[in-house]
Amino acid sequence: HPAGTVAAVDLGATSGRVMLGHVAPNELRITSVARFANGPLQLNENGRPALHWNIVELYRNVVAGLATAVAAAPDIRSVGVDSWAVDYALMRGGRLTQLPYHYRDARCLPASDQAHSRLAATGFTAADLYAANGLQFLPFNSLYQLEADGVSGSLETADTLLLIPDLLNYWLSGAVVAERTNASTTGLLGVHSRTWDDDLITRLGLPAQLLPPLIDAGEPIGTLLPSVASEIQAPGEITVTAVGSHDTASAVVAVPSDRDDCAYISCGTWALVGVELNSPVVSDSARLANFTNEGGVDGRVRFLHNVMGLWLLSESVRTWEREGLPIDLTELLAQAAAVRGQVAVFDADDPCFLSPGDMPSRIATYCRERDLPVPRTPAEFTRSILESLADAFARGIAQAEDLSGHPISVIHLMGGGSQNRLLCQLTATRSGLPVLAGPVEATAIGNVLVQARTAGMVTGSLESLRSLVARTFEPIRYEPARSMAQ
Ligand code: LFR
């Protein structure tokens, strides 16, 4: 009987969790065993507040979560780690040389300009870069962060680069590898070859020897180090398995449908809006629309666009709470749904919303400068944010269809955002397409299923994994409303 249990470690930019997945050919049960907060750590850097990840605290929470997981399910056979993308640790002799930077750190924007000039000096244009790596421009793509590390001298003291999940896998298993879905977000992987692009790496003046050997999601990485196994009191051997270690890659595994005519929105801190393809689209129009071709599990392509996501709302809530205005999210969303009359629809993708800090006043300034109605209350801000996100989602879906020629007749909205009924309804109405909401824990489910397939608990293509998800987690359906007033 192939039934068994695996543990998924899923680290998001605002929280992390350890989940148990019990899987058999017709069974998929997910339970949460540990949750912990995550967030930027601000440290003085010669007078500049630099943003880092508290990666050792995260690791401590992961180990504690795994100990709880093993206590609850002593038969765990495998563990897999996924996290947000692009960020990395620099190592020397197996040790961290500095705390990993947070992708919202201010060093990225100037560094991206510098990297572009460096490429231009070798005769490489933005179009050449897109033809090589297929990535949308985001100022924090790892290649730009590496430019900053090159200038500061940090690369000179490093012998290895490990992306966040690869770092945790190294601490858990001792193996030094780069999982391919997440490696695709560095900007250093060829979009067709899906191997490190030596030509691009040379043009950027980066040391190629920093980059570990690539492995694919589904490959076993090793077993837990004896020291870790005894720390978590594992009763038996536990394999560390590579999953789609980019959280979005794992989420896309768990789209609850085996149909081809669907799009996905994986909505948490970020909202990733797009379709799955078998080959990349690197046309000029895809580049100008800022669509990315990230690597998916089983060699698929995640053709998508990053929309700012629930960050706009959570950072607003943080601001109000700092100002002494306690927020009950359920109540706030009910008030936002009841707002009548025009609210501003702003460009949720505007880079001015990227950094941490007072979000409501940035939104107000944005609206004032463009003669849009300026929201006044938290309810109006919330409504304006959700309308703007839904508008960006609808545009992203329409563009994904146009640019790829992949017909879309239904949208799967997954992740934390799928619990936001107003957002789901507005997305259906603005896109004119039905929205199927859920599962909330799509990322952990995708992480679990890839491990389960490697362990032989399930077999088959992504489509058969997805139909198991669809049978287990029935989505909630939202139809487009006839009028914009819902
Ligand atoms: C989502 C995500 C996005 C990536 C952003 C930054 O959690 O991984 O896919 O663009 O975070 O890493």
From TrEMBL:
It comes from Glaciihabitans tibetensis. One of its GO terms (biological process) is rhamnose catabolic process. Belongs to the FGGY kinase family. InterPro entries: ATPase_NBD, FGGY_C, FGGY_Carb_Kinase, FGGY_N, Rhamnulokinase. Residues 8-253 form the Carbohydrate kinase FGGY N-terminal domain. One of its GO terms (molecular function) is rhamnulokinase activity. Residues 263-454 form the Carbohydrate kinase FGGY C-terminal domain. This is Rhamnulokinase. The keyword Transferase applies. Keywords: ATP-binding, Carbohydrate metabolism, Kinase, Nucleotide-binding, Rhamnose metabolism, Transferase, Xylose metabolism.
